[in-house]
Amino acid sequence: MIVAFSVTPLGVGEDVGEYVADAVRVVRESGLPHRTDAMFTSVEGEWDEVMDVVRRAVAAVEARAPRVSLVLKADIRPGVTDGLTSKVDTVERYLAE
């Protein structure tokens, strides 16, 4: 499964990069395949391990912010691995035609 999620601290002002870095650090330390862009962090793995990473990422931000917003989107497709790369590769292949 691939989960794309965004954790946003609320009540801490406009500059939230430091708080978001706490969440991304949890993802990177998890050892799961992941990718971070300007809007979301995507992480790939089994249900329990991915949801545990999301839970811990939220907790990392929650430890320093009075309120946290979580946006989550999941692609649940049993048996598929390396989806973070293969899905993008498929689109790139069509664009190259």
TrEMBL record:
**Gene3D superfamilies given for it?**
3.30.70.930
Q: Where is the Thiamine-binding protein domain?
A: 3-92
Domain of life of the native organism: Bacteria
Fetch the Pfam families from UniProt.
Answer: Thiamine_BP
Q: Which Gene Ontology terms of cellular component type are present?
A: cytosol
- Which PANTHER family does the entry mention? UPF0045 PROTEIN ECM15
Q: Which family does it belong to?
A: Belongs to the UPF0045 family.
Q: What is this protein called?
A: MTH1187 family thiamine-binding protein
Q: Which organism is it from?
A: Streptomyces parvulus
